[in-house]
Amino acid sequence: MPLLPPLNRPICQWNGQRVWIIGASRGIGAAVAQRLASLGAHLYLSSRDCTPLNLWHDSLPQSQQEHVILLPMDIENSQEVSHAAQKIHGAWEHIDLVLIAAGVYDALRATDFCLEQLPSVQQTIGINLLGPYHVLAAILPRMRTQRHGHVAIISSVAGYNGLPRALAYAPSKAALNNLCEGLYFELRPLGIGISRICPGFVATDMTAQADYTMPALISADDAANEIIAGLARGAFEIHFPRHFTFLLKVLQWLPRRLYFPLLALGVDRAEKPR
User: Fold this and answer.
1) 75 φ/ψ angles, rounded to the nearest 5 degrees
2) Which residue from 202, 205, 200 is spatially nearest to 221, judged by alpha carbons?
3) How far apart are CA 144 and CA 103, in angstroms?
4) Any idea what the Cα angle at residue 140 is, between residues 25 and 86, rounded to 5°?
5) What HEC string does 204-253 produce?
6) What's the pLDDT at 273?
């Protein structure tokens, strides 16, 4: 039995829970959607490209299909997010969980900095950081009224420290980590739970483009199981795999005089041919 109470209300039973997953077509979002559908949750699933979702939806038993609704949406477009939220609010009396899983990775280096590169940087910030703000603006008024609900945002361990080859991605995730802490402080007294999810390396389309060794790589299905287990614990921060993420947490506290040489050592090893 834990010594301290959970920071959020644990979500242990999913049958009939009403969940909106954004970024549900691939990777971790898709794996969580599939797992929750099997547990009896009622789902709205959003993505810019719903083609993979349509194929999966058509394969579901009829009894599950009626509880899984696809809602195309671009998280960068605030009007599309607002219209999607309005549709969900009209269909459901309340919403139990919003999971924001949309994200992109751009391997930006200092040597890439130029004016022509800025649109890529803007897209990374737009999807990874401004996109969640669009969703929060659309759903928090309803959650404040119902004084119930939970928001979980998939961030990354890349937000713990400054990292090379991630000069747009890592700052966007660092900002998300900070945002979740502020949200928790302000929303928990209103009955709204907040979780930030910080995975290590997960085998997805996004990590498939990496040209370096990824330690402690896990599958999207394993990531989904970790997220569901973390929500069942009422955790604020859900990070995994822990033998890897605890190491990164230790690095957060090191003086930069030690951190930078250790980071350089790790990068040198990761860049060796796989």
Assistant:
1) -65, -20
2) 202
3) 26
4) 60
5) CCCHHHCCCCCCCCEEHHHHHHHHHHHHHHCCCEEEECHHHHHHHHHHHH
6) 45
**pLDDT attached to residue 70:** 97
Exposure string over 32-68, b if 16+ CB within 10 A, otherwise e: bbbbbbeeebbbbbbbeebeebeebbeeeeeeeeeeb
Residues 6+ apart with CB under 8 A from 140: 151, 187, 192
Residues 66, 37: contact at Cβ < 8 Å?
A: no
Q: What is the pLDDT of residue 211?
A: 62
Q: Which amino acid is at 107?
A: A
Residue type, 258: L
Cβ contacts of residue 258 below 8 Å, gap of 6+?
none
Phi then psi for residue 198, to 5 deg, are -120, 85
Torsion angle defined by CA atoms of residues 211, 217, 218 and 220, in that order, rounded to the nearest 10 degrees: -30
| 10-residue averages of pLDDT along the chain (274 residues) | 86 98 97 97 96 93 92 97 97 97 92 89 97 98 96 97 92 98 97 97 76 82 98 98 93 92 77 50
Helix residue ranges, H only, the chain: 27-38, 51-59, 62-65, 78-91, 118-125, 131-146, 169-187, 220-233, 242-253, 256-270
Q: Are 204 and 154 in contact (CB under 8 A)?
A: no
Distant-in-sequence, close-in-space partners of 208: CB < 8 Å, separation ≥ 6: none
pLDDT value for 209: 65
**pLDDT at residue 267, as a whole number:** 73
Q: For residue 208, what pLDDT is reported?
A: 62
